[in-house]
């Protein structure tokens, strides 16, 4: 951990958690402070705040907007992606505080019930255009290679949804208690909380390509892709780095561990919920 020195530390009121990347910075939620804050990557200063009642369950950027699930009002809030001005409030609340949200195939995707119902939201009408039944305990959608992928935490599987039919098109058995997902190098990468492995699934064929023993089990944390690597953060391990050309862990930094991680603007971004801070770190040299 001593080798990692932040290039910037942002104090964020409350409990900073989820992040979403834009062309000029990073948005971050703070549920206990009832707002979302924009961290400017050019100035290394926060410069916009959007009020939302208990923002949770991820953030998504798309269609010129920032999409913010609200656990407080059980709605989905849409604001302008540049200035943060309110645009719409949609009656589609998150099923879980860590349930995730995604954009793709001309839509916004959000799991909205404990029974694992995936809502498809049309950004042109701000209405739900489809509801798709998923296996119980499914969360954290991502979009890759024309499909929506969702982790079935209870079923130890990665579920594929076809946006053309609005139906589940198949599933791939992966590690125990899969939760957080990211996309990169033609694959969907899944952090398995049960045993701390990372599953790699081909985004075109849905074939399991690798199960990587990362040694990072436990709740919380997150996973991201960028700068040619997969990055994970969990309690006790600040950063774990995986090389997608070898499917091996190539770096691991012991430390408190973050609550969310992103790779953007030539940096790693980590939120620390209990410390009310966000770190911006130079990408570690190999």
Q: Which value, in Å, is the CA radius of gyration?
A: 17 Å
Oligomer: single chain
CATH fold field value of the domain at 134-179 and 194-219: Thrombin, subunit H
What are the secondary-structure elements, in order, as H or E? EEEEEEEEEEEEEEEEEEEEEEEEEEEE
Shape: globular
Strand content: over 45%
InterPro entries: Haem_d1_sf, Host-pathogen_enzymatic-act, WD40/YVTN_repeat-like_dom_sf
Protein name: Virginiamycin B lyase
Detailed description of the structure:
The strands form 7 sheets. This protein has a 4-stranded antiparallel sheet with strand order 1-28-27-26, with no helix packed on it. It has a 4-stranded antiparallel sheet with strand order 2-3-4-5, with no helix packed on it. It contains no helices and 28 strands. The model has no long low-confidence stretch (mean pLDDT 96). It has a domain at 134-179 and 194-219: Beta Barrel (Thrombin, subunit H), CATH 2.40.10. Helices cover 0% and strands 57% of the residues. The protein has 286 residues and is mostly beta strands. The two termini are 15 Å apart.
């Amino acid at each position: 951990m001593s080798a990692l020195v932040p290039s910037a530390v942002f104090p964020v009121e409350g409990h900073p958690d989820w992040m979403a990347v834009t062309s000029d910075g990073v948005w971050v939620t703070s549920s206990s402070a009832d707002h979302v804050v924009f961290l400017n990557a050019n100035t290394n200063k926060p410069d916009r705040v959007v009020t939302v009642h208990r923002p949770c369950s991820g953030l998504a950027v798309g269609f010129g907007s920032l999409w913010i699930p609200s656990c407080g009002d059980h709605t989905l809030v849409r604001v302008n992606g540049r200035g943060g001005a309110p645009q719409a409030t949609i009656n589609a609340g998150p099923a879980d505080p860590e349930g995730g949200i995604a954009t793709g195939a001309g839509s916004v995707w959000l799991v909205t019930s404990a029974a694992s119902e995936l809502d498809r939201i049309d950004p042109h009408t701000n209405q739900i255009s489809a509801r798709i039944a998923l296996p119980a305990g499914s969360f954290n959608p991502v979009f890759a290679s024309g499909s929506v992928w969702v982790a079935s935490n209870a079923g130890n599987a990665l579920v594929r949804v076809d946006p053309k039919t609005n139906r589940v098109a198949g599933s791939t058995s992966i590690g125990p208690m899969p939760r957080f997902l990211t996309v990169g190098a033609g694959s969907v990468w899944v952090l398995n909380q049960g045993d701390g492995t990372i599953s790699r699934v081909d985004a075109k064929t849905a074939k399991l390509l690798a199960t990587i023993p990362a040694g990072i089990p436990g709740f919380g944390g997150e996973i991201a892709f960028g700068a040619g690597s997969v990055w994970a953060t969990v309690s006790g391990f600040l950063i774990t780095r995986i090389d997608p050309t070898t499917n091996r862990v190539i770096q691991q930094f012991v430390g408190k561990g973050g609550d969310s991680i992103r790779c953007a603007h030539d940096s790693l971004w980590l939120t620390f919920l209990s410390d009310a801070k966000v770190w911006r770190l130079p990408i570690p040299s190999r």
